[in-house]
Amino acid sequence: MIDRVDPFIGTDVTDLPERTGLAASWWWPKPSIGNTHPGATYPLGMVSACAYSGAYPTGYGKYDLVTEGVPTQLHERQLASGFTHFQQSGTGAIRKYYNYFRVTPMLQPLDALGELWEIDAESAAPGSYSATLASGIRCEVTVGPKSAVHRYTFPSHRDARVVVDFSLGGLSIPFGTTVPLRAHLHAVGPGIAQGEIVVEGAPLAVHVECDTPQWRQMLWYDRRLMPGGTRLDFDYIRPTTLRPFGLMWAGPTEPGQVVELRFGFSLRGVEQARENLYADCGPGPSSFEDRRAATAATWREHLGAISVDSPSTDRQTVFATALYHSLIKPCLAPGESPFWPASGPFAYDIATMWDIYRTQLPLLTTLLPERACELAQALLYISEEEGNLPIGYRMARGADQFSRQGSALAHTFLADLCQLGLGIDWDWALVHMHNDLRRMYGEDFLLRGEVHPISHTLDLAFGYWCTSVVAAQVGDQALVAEFAPLAARWANAFDAATGLLKDSTFYEGGKWNYSFRLVHDMAARIALAGGDDAFVALLDQFFGFGADAVTQPGVRPGIDEMARGYALNRFEGLNNEPDMEAPWSYQYAGRPDRTAEVVHAVVQQQFATGRGGLPGNDDSGGLSSWYVWATLGLFPVAGQNLFLINTPAWRESRIQVGAAAFTIATSGFVEPVPGSPAQYVQSVRLDGAPLERSWLTGTELHRGGLLHIELGPVPSRWGTEIRPPSTSQRPPSPHTGAT
């Protein structure tokens, strides 16, 4: 699988074949670009490294900030002023752009620092990135869990240099710069330096080693060298007083001479940064090849957790890359909390929970349950120390509130872990889950029964249901009884006259986009809309069955253009995440055939190879993980320990679920091609026994087995009678099964 990954997918403006049929009726309000980067990454690791142009939002690429439509270009070609560390993956305007410790190999004087060179001969693979600058310097980077190694191959020159800029952070767009609050830099000895910058309130330390001790080593400030200087200290810095500063090695090079830099990073000081470097890369002086090979091996293991059978190399590439993008974030950094003394789990770049809780976190839970528990414990530490379970959390002081976007989303992740019987101190978790529900919008929810934005009413009601799962696990039946009527308040969000959510404000979408969420009592939800037929009619209208093709927003779309699009009340086609679970709502109304048709249109027409192969922002793997699940023919109902079954896009696939293997095999499968019709489930067998229901429990998936799906060209009766469970009919009960 690793050989099929293309890290360049999603780095450019969306460039998909012209949509036809159902997909042509969907409207994309958000930016038409994946916002990914091709830099070196480690699975769920602290560090990434990539060429830096200063463009939005990762620092890589050619584009300016955009929140709607097609982004405008800052540059005509790929350019770079150096190579930076710590990039977001697929996110949008989240205001933490990182890109710290820029490394620039140069043949020019220091005054030229910051010049943008054209880059050529780019290549990337999981764990490594390389490019050649117009200056003729070949540049390669790789990373470990808490480290990065750079290798530069120089032409002949009398005074080549490698410059590390400690002052740079953020992007080269208005208001995109990150200025260190304070900084310290110390030249420890020949080829060795240490330092720390405090950015967004977080102390980021570095230990750096250069394998050319014969070169001159100098500090610099405001692009002026400081011969003989060994320390730079800034107790406070503000934007108007910032002057660039950093470290430089310089000396003559022979043709093809290689210079290697090794970085260890820590949020707990320079000594721990040094320990992290040696733990990742050994004592040196050279470690590029070993580190690249070790990281590639780790990626090979992670990506090997799922295999798919297809003769199409393009389809394999899209899938492998989606799985790769799904496992980059969040950053798990055990023992690295800079804000409290606990030595246990720590995490950042939970950016952002409303994008990842439905599909990316369930994928993490399925493939890497131990890492999922590590993340859960990190969330609980954050709550204990900072007062709330975060909706977003970056390398910055304090959890991000994101008060408009969502509430109580971590509860969904925790409920899934609890129902699987995974090892968390659930008494401890229950305390923080309960307390968190009463913060932010929670008080209004308790007093008035609903809150606005109205989607928070759904969040909080489900948060109470998820918390009741944990209360049942620990035997607190009083809390289970207390939470039941609060969990039922999801119904307060809906207008019975329309079958949709009440009028309100909405984040990134409208009431149609949020109205088909998989709430925990879908039977009552469908009854509220007037029954199966009325509910399906609403869904058909939303997905554009029988509707005309639409025109997507262009560059800098105007207010009127966007208003006309929003007025369509149409599915966003995975251009964004608010309605990503809506296709599976059909299954609760006995129409798995409709789910098959919508998902087939998305999978076959909204994802492709090439830099423009994503329909919208990947959002820390939120988009890519949807594709992984959808093509497997499974969809997680987050928080409810359910996986809905539908048509897979592969003849056969295999998922390594912890220590067990789960195989999805088919008969009657026809390899899909562009424009081909959907296929429909005819019957299902689980470990040889007929399965009339259209779902699995998480426990069934996690214990492994064989799911055999018979497919055909026309809809069948399968899945039309026995509906997925509604939680009012299945009250929470203590976990009894083993995983």
From TrEMBL:
Pfam families: Glyco_hydro_92, Glyco_hydro_92N. The lineage of its organism: Bacteria, Bacillati, Actinomycetota, Actinomycetes, Micrococcales. One of its GO terms (biological process) is carbohydrate metabolic process. InterPro entries: 6-hairpin_glycosidase_sf, GH-type_carb-bd, GH92_N, Glyco_hydro_92, PNGase. GO terms for cellular component: cytosol. It comes from the Bacteria. This is Glycoside hydrolase family 92 protein. It comes from Pengzhenrongella sicca. Residues 717-739 are annotated as: Disordered.
